Amino acid sequence: IKQQLSDIYSQRWSEYVDMNMKRVEGMPENIVEATRKGLAIGTQLATSLADVPVVAMFVHDPREVFVTDGNLGRTPVVGGASLYPAVQNFLLAARAEGLGGVLTTLISASENEVRPILQLPEPWGVYAMVPIGYPKGNHGPLRRAPLEHMVKFDVWSD
Question: Average pLDDT per run of 10 along the chain, which is 158 residues long?
């Protein structure tokens, strides 16, 4: 199963890399280099996914997800608020056990290919994949932007 998921993910990843490298063409070199660096890290995952000890797949029944922002003329995002806290808790529990993991949603675009591999019944869908394993070296420090860069009080401000 992991090899099949890896094959699907690798194809999607290749498309993602191409799209992002085209997106940064002509941008300042520091942006291009940062993009290359980030994509190289992701490529390591794509090329080693079949060898990761555990690949957790997070699935959902869309009939149980209440999307309150579906009629606003933009991409709805609220439905994920009912789903992604479970992934975050899974990652926190893994970290507490000395394991590392990463949340990726890229494989969700290939849901119709993934569904038979996982024997998922209709209408269940894939919303996240989390490879889990022992990190090479130690966990790095958690990096968070200062609160004042992330939170606006009362009204939007720069």
Answer: 97 96 93 93 94 96 91 91 94 93 95 96 96 82 79 80
Name all domains of the chain by residue range, CATH numbers in brackets.
2-135 (3.40.109.10)
pLDDT computed for residue 144 by the predictor: 79
Is residue 107 within 8 Å of 114, Cβ to Cβ? yes
User: Starting from the edge strand earliest in sequence, which strands make up the sheet with 125-133, in order?
Assistant: 54-60, 125-133, 100-101
Fill in the DSSP letter of residue 152: -
At 117, give phi and psi (nearest 5°): -65, -45
Q: What is the pTM of this model?
A: 0.83
Query: Any idea which residue has 């209440």 for tokens?
Result: 66
Angle at 81 between CA 110 and CA 87, to 5 degrees: 65
